[in-house]
Amino acid sequence: MPYSVKKRKCKTASGEKGSYVITKKKDNKKLSCHTSKEKAQSAVRARHANEAEITPDILEMIYERILLEYKGKKKKFSGSHPDESYQPFDEEWFDKKGMTTWDEDRETTKQYLKDIGLL
After folding, report:
1. How sure is the predictor about 72, in pLDDT bands with cuts at 50, 70 and 90?
2. How far is 32 from 21, CA to CA, in rounded Å?
3. Do 93 and 64 touch, CB atoms closer than 8 A?
4. Under a CB-based contact definition with an 8 Å cutoff, are residues 114 and 94 in contact?
5. Rounded-to-integer distance, Cα 92 and Cα 110, Å
6. What is the DSSP string of 49-112?
7. Is 115 helix (H, G, I), strand (E, B) or coil?
């Protein structure tokens, strides 16, 4: 349904003085009050988004966009806790004597860490 933003004195839901109201285009009845034109325009966009019918084509476009955005981001390895994250190891640090007991173990572990992206 089409909405419009009109400059008119009003009170917001929290009791503040507002200057912009949202109305239906056919009707002059106030639907909501906002303190700035930008906030009122954002509310109109939100109302349109809530009324929009989401078709499978739109869902596919949203899914593709999310995948493209994710693909461009750097890999982050996280644990089970939100504040827990794993940083990649430095190969020189890993190759220090005493980190693993046997050269064969060191190479196996190094290859595993490379495979999962931590080295």
Report:
1. low
2. 6
3. no
4. no
5. 11
6. HHH----HHHHHHHHHHHHHHHHHSPP-EE-SSTT-EEPPPPHHHHTSTTSSSSHHHHHHHHHH
7. helix
pTM of the predicted model as reported, rounded to 2 decimal places? 0.43
Which residues contact residue 13 at a Cβ distance below 8 angstroms, ignoring those fewer than 6 apart? 32, 33
The answer for residues whose C-beta is within 8 angstroms of residue 84's C-beta and 6 or more apart is 78
- CA-to-CA distance for 90 and 20, rounded, in angstroms? 57
Q: What is the DSSP letter of 18?
A: E
Q: Which of helix, strand or coil describes residue 4?
A: strand
Query: How much is the pLDDT for 101?
Result: 60
For 69-90, b/e burial (b = at least 16 CB within 10 A) is: eeeeeeeeeeeeeeeeeeeeee
How far apart are the C-alpha atoms of 18 and 2, rounded to whole Å?
22
